[in-house]
Amino acid sequence: MEKALIGKKIGMTQIFDEAGKVIPVTVIEAGPCVVIQKKTAETDGYEAVQLGFGETEKKKLNKPELGHLNKAGGSLVSHLKEFRLDDIEGIEVGDVLTADVFEEGDRVDVTGISKGKGYAGVSKRWNAQRTPTTHGGGPVHRHAGSMGPTSSPSRIFKGKIGAGHLGVEQVTVQNLDVVKVDPELNLIAVCGAVPGPKGGIVYIKNTVKNITAKGEAGSSNNPQKASARVNPQKASARTR
Length: 240
Prior knowledge:
With 240 residues, the chain is mainly beta. It has a domain at 4-115 and 170-206: Beta Barrel (Elongation Factor Tu (Ef-tu), domain 3), CATH 2.40.30. The protein contains four helices and twelve strands, in the order βββαβαββββαββββα. It has helices spanning 41-44, 63-70, 122-126, 235-238, and strands at 4-16, 22-30, 33-39, 48-55, 77-83, 96-97, 107-113, 118-120, 164-166, 170-182, 187-191, 201-206. A hairpin with a 4-residue loop joins β10 (170-182) and β11 (187-191). It starts with a strand and ends with a helix.
């Protein structure tokens, strides 16, 4: 069953597993999320749920937003996000989803807005190489250099790399492990980094990756492979 939540990035920390290994995790305040709207194939042509997260004041919402939220019981939320799920029969408008929707061992995709880096040049923004530093290169080693074509087509094609605003883009990190879930505090710890600054809004959903368990590694039957050659001097060959 597909699951989804809206959360807020708290920050990063470390967790020690049973073997004593350090696991870098990102702590996310996941929920509580209120189901604001439920879309079905009969009425909308597809199945989805709209979740609301965060509290706000009534004066910060306009009349269309208040009318939309009043249909769900009048919950004043600051963030709305629609998720397409494969099964929404057990979800109704007004339900509250908390962090216990996910369990330890689940794999999730986390989407957020990346940190803003301001106006950046081509070297930082696109990893462009420097211009020659000798033979009269001049003080322009980190500039873009010449990029205009000749008389045909006498213009620069769209999409050419250049200086500009870096960051503040939607980024999705896929296939992160849910290491720990705290239902009382509505906290989820996922292994690895999550896009965005501390306090940024993130969207958590089941991963789209197809996870298959790997089988045990064994020796190959192909005589051309090194794993199939028997070296009597090796301990692995004497134990076969």
